[in-house]
Amino acid sequence: MVNGYRQIRLGVYSAVSAGVLLLLSVTTPIAAAYTGAEYPTTATWSTGSVVSVNDSGDVVAASLAATNYLGVVTQQIDATTVEVADSGAVSVLVTDAAGEIASGTRLGLSEIAGIAGAWTGGVAIGVAQATPTDWREATLSNQASAKVTTVQVQLLTDGAASDTSAISAFFAAVDRTAAGIAGKPVDTWRVVTALLIGLGGLILSFGLLFVSSRESFFSMGRNPMASRIIMGGLWKIVFLAVGIMLITLAAAYLIVRIG
Fold it and tell me: Which residue ranges make up each domain of the chain?
């Protein structure tokens, strides 16, 4: 009977841990800061421009042909200095020429120099954190027109990785899976939160089952006469573990599906 109480107590502690994990995951704020560096320049840059470095070491507008992606312009400090962010959350100039852009869309370099677009391979810049609504027509240097706007983007620290990178491929697969479940692009923070909750629930559930079953079989070996009571306690733990798993998986699904 004592072992049964120990198992129930362990189950209660695990349930409380699952609740704490859920609360922390849902309430964890998204970092809005960014990290960057200052670079010399002879050009005037608009905030949100996507830039790279040419063979001479000069900051230039980045496009699909760029080989040395640098980051996103956050401010023109003076006539000879520009600040470029390479991680964090910043505003980025985007175009819908390569596909629709919505919250959760992965962005990359586009055919238009200095402007990001929907990622189709190559360099991945970041993930859109909102759905743009204020599109405007802009005339490019070659006199062609395109729809452009700015959107808040969570930059990827592995932005220089190509589409063959294992990390890039993993996040692309996660994005596609989440979008398939939700039926629309999903914010990165929702995907990460859902993964944390889902994995946390599975770990708690299987850990609880493993510990409880091991203790139960040891207890029955020491006291066979109490096997009926011990098995009853074990079945309660099994139901509790299944409940934790279902609740956390449901929470993960709702986080991805709703919003």
Answer: 2-28+192-257, 34-161
Amino acid at 7: Q
Q: How confident is the model over 134-148, as pLDDT tens digits?
A: 888 776 555 567 788
Q: What is the pTM of this model?
A: 0.52
CB 228 within 8 A of CB 2: no
pLDDT digits (tens, 9 = 90+) for 1-24: 444 445 545 454 444 444 444 444
Token pair for 172? 């692309």
**Residue 61 CA neighbour count, 13 Å, CB half:** 19
- Report long-range pairs for 118-124 (Cβ below 8 Å, ≥24 apart): 119/172, 121/162, 121/163, 122/64, 122/162, 122/163, 123/62, 123/66, 123/69, 123/159, 123/160, 123/161, 123/162, 124/156, 124/158, 124/159, 124/161, 124/163, 124/168, 124/171, 124/172
Count of CA atoms in the C-beta half-sphere (13 A) of 26: 14
Which CATH superfamily, name and number, covers 34-161?
Head decoration protein D (2.40.300.10)
Q: What is the distance between the alpha carbons of residues 119 and 117, in angstroms, rounded to a whole number? A: 6
